Amino acid sequence: MEKPAPANHPVHDLILRRWSPRAFDDREVTDGELLSLFEAARWAPSCFNEQPWSFLVATKKDAREYERLLSCLVEFNQSWAKTAPVLMISIAHLQFQRNAKPNRHGVHDVGLAVENMVLQATSMGLFVHQMAGFDADKVRELYGVPETHEPVAAIALGRPGDAAKLESEKARQGETEPRERKPLDAFVFTGSWGKTSPLAEA
User: Fold this and answer.
1) Cα dihedral sign for 62, 66, 69, 72?
2) Which of 17, 58, 101, 138 is positioned for an S-S bond with 69, CB 3.0–4.6 A?
3) In the prediction, which pLDDT does 170 show?
4) What is the DSSP secondary-structure string of 6-74?
5) How far apart are CA 23 and CA 164, in angstroms?
6) Is residue 6 domain-resident?
7) Secondary structure (3-state) at 166
8) What separation in angstroms does the CA of 64 have from each of 27, 35, 71, 89, 154?
9) Total structural domains in the chain?
10) Residue 61 maps to a domain
11) Alpha carbon of 154 to those of 57, 77, 96, 150, 177: distances in Å?
């Protein structure tokens, strides 16, 4: 299932087609496909080219490792993400390697790397759902993530599946409800904070 965005201005097809389903098919994502996704993430821009991203990854080919990562998600997310063949946690390095000073751009740069991954996935017929609903402290404990690093988001990855098979009515509803975004005049400013840019008023 695809649910293209109703954009008001010309946008690349990959951006329009990208969305975050909860219904996943359990078909395997191959090692080659995963490597392409990580390669896309690898080439994201970052402050001072620090590349402050890391990924914990688990696939259903290793059931024990998959269940361990799945256990880090909140209960609602476990209920639907358990069908996805791949789970990940994105992690940001919060210090510059060059001088050990705080890198306040680290989380931003991880987001850039993940968006590269997401668009590459879309181009391959794969879909990604990122989640805030996970236990970062549990990730730290289970995987030995150092204090200099921050678990940012959980990620489910796979091919779109049958929404009717989702256990939760809330999850099923989300598969078909219209996609919405704030209008440009709500976030494009000129001159001072909150002053809508004339460009966005057009």
Assistant:
1) negative
2) 58
3) 86
4) --SS---HHHHH----S-EE-PPPPHHHHHHHHHHHHT---GGG---EEEEEEETTSHHHHHHHHTTB-
5) 8
6) no
7) coil
8) 18, 21, 11, 16, 18
9) 1
10) yes
11) 10, 10, 23, 12, 23
163 and 175 Cβ atoms separated by less than 8 Å: yes
**Token pair for residue 129?**
């759902």
Query: Mean pLDDT of successive 10-residue segments in the chain (202 residues)?
Result: 90 96 95 98 98 98 98 97 98 96 97 98 97 98 98 97 90 91 96 96 78
| CATH label of the domain that carries residue 85 | 3.40.109.10
Query: Exposed (0-12), middle (13-18) or buried (19+): which is 148, by Cβ within 10 Å?
Result: middle
Which two tokens mark 188?
């494009």
CB 135 within 8 A of CB 151: no
Q: Which two tokens stand for residue 176?
A: 């078909």
Q: Helix count (H) and strand count (E) of the chain?
A: 8, 5
pLDDT at 25: 95
The token pair that represents 97 in the structure block: 């390697």
Residue 180 lies in a domain: no
Residues in the chain: 202
